[in-house]
Amino acid sequence: MPVASRAELERLLADDVPYGDLTTEALGIGAARGIMRFVARDPMVLALAEDAAAIIELAGCRVELLARTGDRLAPGSPILTAHGEAAALLKAWKVAQTLIEIWSGVATSTCAIVDAARAVSPDIAVACTRKTIPGTKPFAVAAVKAGGAVMHRLGLSETVLVFPEHRAFLEKVPLTEIVERLRRAAPEKRLVAEVTSFAAAVELAVAGFDVIQAEKFAPAEIATLVARMKAMSSVWNRPIVAAAGGINVGNVAAYAQAGADIVVTSSPYLAKPCDVQVRIALAEPGKHLMTEAA
């Protein structure tokens, strides 16, 4: 099922073809029947295939979806086949291809981080931040989930995360009072606090925060923090330790080895798009005109 609504998908099409396809119209080929095939060129974790198929269908084509979001594809694996008039195929082609390429890149990067972390710590959670391109959050969430991670925060409305920037406005308020205030206002929510030092982490844990988000701690510092939290667990349930800041596929295993319960990352959003090969051909028997789109 597509992530985006019909109206959102129609807007994507309209953005690329606001006043018709000048090239197709000028060539006079719009009514010719054709077939379009999407194939994975790279190893990838597929994302947004259903939305791409829906876009092609909105353009007026019939689509056979051959792979689904979350599938791990080898090079040469088919993704979808579409049948329709040239005008419809060419209208939907680039929008659908680009959607899959960009978000499969995010899903593939996410999966690599999850695999690297869980090779060391099978139960660790990998969470991706809300630092997505504005306006693309539904696609980003779908890609993150396809890669096996969870969302750290969907936005400001559903989570409690106290940053040092919040505390700048609460300089004279004791931490225990801040915790009491938050629990009264949001009794069903876990209380999360970001810290940039070991001392602050301990202070906030003692005050009663449920999750300590350690920003830009080195793996050795995370290990020390986890040990301290475990030593405090005889008094109360220890806070969850979330490692955040600069975590990527190259260093996530070290943070998992250090004992972090959660690793928080934004790096998948900077991933290189995956490569999807598109072939378009005439549908009539005996015709062999073939164009390949890079």
Give a structural overview.
By secondary structure, this protein is of the alpha/beta class. It folds into two domains: 128 residues, Aldehyde Oxidoreductase, domain 3 (Alpha-Beta Complex), CATH 3.90.1170.20; 151 residues, TIM Barrel (Alpha-Beta Barrel), CATH 3.20.20.70. Helix content is 40%, strand content 21%. It has ten helices and 14 strands. Strands 7-6-12-11-10-9-8 form a seven-stranded parallel sheet. A five-stranded antiparallel sheet has the order 3-5-1-13-14, covered by helices on one side. It has a two-stranded antiparallel sheet with strand order 2-4. Helix 8 links the parallel strand 9 and strand 10. Helix 3 runs antiparallel to helix 4, helix 8 packs parallel to helix 9 and helix 9 packs parallel to helix 10. The chain starts with 5 loop residues before the first helix and ends with a strand. The C terminus is likely disordered.
Topology of this structure?
Elements: H1 6-16, H2 22-27, E1 33-40, E2 44-45, H3 49-58, E3 62-65, E4 72-73, E5 78-85, H4 86-120, E6 125-128, H5 137-146, E7 150-151, E8 160-162, H6 164-167, H7 175-185, E9 191-195, H8 198-207, E10 211-215, H9 219-231, E11 240-244, H10 252-258, E12 262-265, E13 276-282, E14 290-293
Parallel strand pairs: 6-7, 6-12, 8-9, 9-10, 10-11, 11-12
Antiparallel strand pairs: 1-5, 1-13, 2-4, 3-5, 13-14
Helix pairs in contact: 1-3, 3-4, 4-5, 4-10, 8-9, 9-10
